[in-house]
Amino acid sequence: MLRFPDHIRNNPRLRLHKLSLFSCNSAALMASKTFSSSFSLLPLTPSPKRLSTPCKRLVPYLSSKPYSKNHSLSLRTNGFSSIPSANVSAPVYSKELEDRPLNMRSLEILKHKLKQLGIDISACVPGRENRLLCPSCNGGESEEISLSLFINQDGSSASWMCFRAKCGWKGITKAFADGKPSYANLSRVNKVKVKREITVESLQLEPLCNQLIAYFAERMISAETLKRNAVMQKKSGEEIAIAFPYWRKGSLVNCKYRDIAKRFWQEKDTEKIFYGLDDIEDASDIIIVEGEIDKLAMEEAGFRNCVSVPDGAPPSVSSKEVPAEEQDTKYQYLWNCKEYLKKASRIILATDGDPPGQALAEELARRLGRERCWRVKWPKKNEVDHFKDANEVLMYLGPSVLKDVIENAELYPIRGLFNFRDFFDEIDRYYHRTLGYEFGVPTGWRALDGLYNVVPGELTVVTGVPNSGKSEWIDALLCNLNESVGWKFALCSMENKVRDHARKLLEKCIRKPFFDTSYGSSVERMSVEELEKGKKWLSDTFYLVRCENDSLPSIKWVLDLAKAAVLRHGVRGLLIDPYNELDHQRPVSQTETEYVSQMLTKIKRFAQHHSCHVWFVAHPRQLHHWIGAPPNLYDISGSAHFINKCDNGIVIHRNRDPEAGPVDQVQVCVRKVRNKVVGTIGDAFLSYDRVTGVYTDIDEPQKKQ
User: What PANTHER family does the entry give (predicted)?
Assistant: First the structure.
């Protein structure tokens, strides 16, 4: 056994406590997953496994690993560090140091820089790996010696990495700016080392004492299960730790220890594998849990095809891609056991229910393949909390409930792949009409409401020959929707000046002309008070999407601003008028048809995701033989995808022949309705008042202000 350095042996915080003897009937055992240094480990209730003879108390056990003199430093970085932090003073080197040989000078400068980072290399040897206490995480609760430091043989540079999953601090620093790059040295830290061969005898493991058997009994783990899994203990003087041996094909590969304070450590330079690996050999179904005791709990529920990860859970899911096998150090145990895992067709991830446990499940699924992974849902403990893990469920609800939890595991979610049952709540609300707007919002015109209603999340394409009143009709529709249900709108109307668009909207709202001119006929002009009232209505109802320079807006630019309007102002409708005023640059290899298809897909995804109805105005192509009839949706310039991809297609057509009928009559041709619940194909006729821009049903008299 290695001798502790003086600063460890003389440090009261790390000094080993003496083990006292006590009677087994003088203490109580807490049914918790954590140990506590303030209570003993005897059962709360009488147990047949209790003995009348004294038993040694389970106290903290520290492995014989060298400890660094590093002081705690609140420093954390995910990148490479080559200079001290900003609040560290610049080093000043003496003339004596400058006179030393270059390699000695490099080492001294390197030592000074690392000391600023909290790493003391006084006892470290260049050219080999050195293990220290990490100044970033202090080794966690177990004070694990987890920092691997490599110093170049010539002392020119150093690289380090903390192997704790919850830390991972790593970095590189050099003595001089022109020193050799030491990125290659970081890979030497990751290099797979020669594994130790260990045996039960060499580790001095021994059977569990009755006190520990009683402790496991309180956790509903039987002596038979402990014996089958060869759970043992290790003593060092008066100290005892639980030992979980890791076997593979009958050979001892690793051993993990747990002390009274729930601190864990493993044998150094041993291979990382699953705990209980031999139990999943040739298994088609595998259960993976987060801790050794959870693996034992699964066996009590009848599942031996279960293994535990050796290193616990990460704090969160990594945002990076899964690294290559040789670089995937934190999950090397998966690669070491791949021969066992590749035979499994169904892998149940029964990790803890807390955020780190869920992060572990995601990291495992990323590597094992989500398509063959399942996940468990732990039962509710109360109205707010759930049970955390398998052993908690076993202790409080029993083996039958734990068995049900595993048997009712759900498919692990794969992004973009769903089942209808994932939407049953929404389907029920749709059936009972509690979602809102299931039948759409009426347009405000009786003649049209039977044909077309406005549904959030849909795309309506509107077309018509020039000067047919497409934009005027949509403006009137928006005014009706605001009046009936209070919707707000984002307007990307590039053919209108802001003042002209405001005038048209105000005339429709106030039902009086903006100016006292010839088009206003004999109707009284809106007053200043009415104008001020209308301006407030404009400000509360509409938000403008406009380019402030002379460039053409792209569809992405429009949708990004519309998204901001949805999130910031709660708009429910977006008008894009017209298509040909947008920037339609596309790759040379992309046809206009392909471009239009892609553009409309983006618009529809926006509408669906934000529950926002989109009206898109598109002009028809030049009609050489037009005889005055309404155009078809297939006449839209650009692509047939305008009708193929839209949810609703409308043609606005105005009569221009006095002999054919009133010239103020507007024909609204509904040519496509995807959702039969909200409308159907047909024509509606409205009357247009040129003075106010208001549309009314033909049999409806003009409303007075």
Answer: T7-LIKE MITOCHONDRIAL DNA HELICASE (PTHR12873), TWINKLE MTDNA HELICASE (PTHR12873:SF0)
